[in-house]
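Take a specimen:
=====
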Amino acid sequence: MPEIKVNLFSQILNIIDRNMVNKLVRKHQSDKHSKGINTWTHLVSMLFCHLAKVSSLREISNGLRSATGNLNHLGVETAPCKSSLSYINQHRGWEVFRDMYFDLLEVLEPSLALRRQYASRLRRKIYLMDSTVVSLCLSVFDWAHFRTRKGGVKLHTVLDYDNCLPTFLHVTEARKHDSTVAKQVEFPKGAVVVMDRAYLDFDWLYVLDSIGVFFVTRLKSNVLYETLARYNEGLAYHLKDEDISLLSPKGQRQYPKDLRVVKVYDADKQEEILLLTNNTSWTAQTISGLYKARWEIEIFFKHIKQVLKIKTFVGTSHNAVMVQVWTAMITILLLRYLLCKAKYDWSLSNLVGFLRINLMVKINLWQWLNQPFVRPEQPPPKWSLF
């Protein structure tokens, strides 16, 4: 077997098309006033930040500097120093990394494993919508106002259920309401949007219905409605399936059409949940299953907070935070691609942990992904004269 002369990190970077990166660099002119650190070196530095899970700019700089002769394999001429990284995180526009993520997603998506448990049955595109708050120190991140003595940013995310990767991501101050940002998202006709009750805005839901988008969300307990028809009463799986209309004058004005409520029982929390939808043809089991699939976006938030460098930031400006968020999305996309290609049954956390240990080791990436543990050879049989 020929000796591998490049490390794992370099082989992961080779997945990214440099021509695509160069095209985006020209489009955004992101190498203008680069202070000697081009966009590719910036990207490599931030991917190293996430994969190695370092805690500061100094550790990024020292980690890359320690690679010495391996830098040219990474496409980097000189390891950036701490002050230069701080400058480019503050001044290079984060939009180039956002566009890089979506272009890379378009290239790698055919190779990603799809989760079509409900999509194949419904033959529709399913989107999961939610947000998560990342707490910040208000005295350091003075632009990220949340509460009187607390700062934070909120990641508003729309996840494609097929591949569990974001198709929309917007970062705001933590106090920004979910339904306000949701109105910026455009969904294709016939799509299914699954979301929590924070998005219960009947004006916006009626807009979704008018363009042919189906939704499944939770109904708040203070919403007044009247029951028009009941179906499948007495079944244990779903306690109630009703056609309803809103009672309040404001509700009737915001959503004049009839709606459907499915009441299910959450055994884990031991409570009844009211699910609201504008689809009248699906079974109650399908609606319940769609809302249960929303848990995938909670797992996604857990992964980016625990596995990647997203809970704390190496820069304090708004631009630096956005750069770190979008390079985290590029990292999770690359990791999903590796998971789909590997024959070994990796979990995401285990894969990241093993990559972190072997990031600069010169072994074949794909062989290592398929067989991370070398099986010991069988010892020779013991001979005895008796």
About this structure: The mean pLDDT is 87. The longest strand covers residues 126-136.
